[in-house]
Amino acid sequence: MNSAESAALALVLRERGWSPAENGESADMVLLNTCAVRQTAEQRVMGRLAQYQALKRSRRSLGQTFALVVAGCMAERLGDSLKEKFDAVDYVMGTAARSVFPVILETLEKGQSLTAILTDEKPQFSFSASHLEEGRLGLKSFHSFVPIMHGCNNYCSYCIVPYVRGREISRSPASITAEIRLLAGRGVRAITLLGQNVNSYRFEDEAGRVTDFPALLELTARETEKSPIRWVRFLSSHPKDLSSDAIRVMAEHRVFCRHLHLCVQHGSNAVLTAMNRRYTRERYLDLVDEIRQAIPGITLSTDILVGFPGETEADLELTLDLMERVKFHYAYMYHYNPREGTAAYDLPGRIGEAVKRERLARVIALQKKHTQELLKQRIGSRETILIEGISRKNADELIGRTERDEMAVVSGKADAIGRFARVSISSLCGNTLRAKELTLCPGD
Ligand code: SF4
Fold first, then answer.
1. Ligand 1 centre and the CA of 65: distance in Å?
2. Whole-angstrom Cα distance, residue 204 to residue 218?
3. Which residue, judged by its Cα, is nearest atom 4 of ligand 1?
């Protein structure tokens, strides 16, 4: 979400003739787009603000200065207290206030102070028209996020997001399809529909006509049918809201990648209840069966959070058991850290650091085993990949992704970036497939 929003802000800058500076020493403005989900992310931003504060002082002594703007969830959460802590901060732009950004730029272009645009009014959130990132290596962008929602109504007890992004707002289907058309016109090959909980997407127009998530998927499939966009993904799916209709539409249209990120968080009903996730492990396992029956060969990934207050050894065993039953392709795994301002912050039964780390290590070890087993099954197969870039380890190799969200490395030249190719999977190195015999897809 932050990447998409940063791309939208960068587009506003480019449209007004601004260009990226080499560094803070030569910038007219420094914009920090922040995340508040984890304490560590906020600590990093605090460190960066301290650096920019020192830089601003030294540039001021040379008769130069720059504007320092803080945007995003942390800006929303901490508001003007950031200005009190760091007097170098000129403007704090919360998540709902992005519409103020052009005004900030206009004010700077006129050489005026940003304090002049302070307003008491609460700005309304609005979606940007495009979130296309600038292509790397001088190439066109081949992938774009397409936000379809903002905010979240779920209030999982460990999560700060609903407090900093507010309640769900669904973007109009007309605005979403307009962005998809724009991306198709730019030659984009893959898109990801984005929201905190895409399955609860629901837009009602003035005539009372409702578009829900399955209907939006149908619309997306139609819109991309005769376009260069060949792959569509969506993120994130909440198990309590993923409907049979959405699974059916996904199964019916090949444009939807055969991969689904379905956050489970935990395998114990007691912990799921304490987390306020509003589904059971039984419901989750049934959903996995339904998805796999409807879409054979689909891969699943997930998020797992261990060490939640009150978690017992038996609860952890249930999580390991659920992982054994599902066999996720990969997982983002964390241990719980209390987040001030969330419902779980005051829960009794906090787990000690050493126990949390030990439990997380067991979850990670099991996931590693599953990932390896599943990826090894690909060896010997012929796969289609979208080439995403040059391998960081070897400049003569390209890195690509299958529709099942597996990474593959293959020898090739940079002009294949952004194109679909067929490759033969020959081996596995870590969690990356090694491939050979790259053939660019015809007409690509
Ligand atoms: S669904 Fe839960 S974890 Fe996800 S953003 Fe909403 S509150 Fe946070």
1. 39
2. 16
3. 196
Q: What are phi and psi of 423, to 5 degrees?
A: -140, 160
Long-range pairs, 159-162, Cβ under 8 A, ≥24: 159/37, 159/339, 159/342, 160/36, 160/37, 160/73, 160/77, 160/339, 160/341, 160/342, 161/37, 161/73, 161/196
How does residue 118 score in pLDDT terms, banded at 50, 70 and 90? low
**Share of residues in the chain with pLDDT > 70 (%):** 97
Alpha helix (H) residue ranges in 62-186: 73-78, 81-85, 101-109, 161-165, 173-185
CA 409, 413, 418, 420 dihedral sign is negative
Q: What is the pLDDT of residues 341-352, one digit of tens each?
A: 999 999 999 999
Q: What is the C-alpha separation between 89 and 104, in angstroms, rounded?
A: 13
Check if 162 has its Cβ closer than 6 Å to any atom of ligand 1.
Answer: yes
Cα(206)–Cα(340) distance, integer angstroms: 39
290-302 tens-digit pLDDT: 999 999 999 999 9
- List 170's β-bridge partners, or say none: 149
In angstroms, the CA 29 to CA 18 distance is 10
The label of the residue with tokens 């830089």 reads 55
Q: Is the dihedral of CA 208, 243, 273, 266 positive or negative?
A: negative
For atom 8 of ligand 1, the residue with the nearest CA is 159
Alpha helix segments (H runs only) across 208-268: 213-224, 244-252
Q: How far apart are CA 192 and CA 261, in angstroms?
A: 12
47 burial class (0-12, 13-18, 19+ CB within 10 angstroms)? Answer: exposed
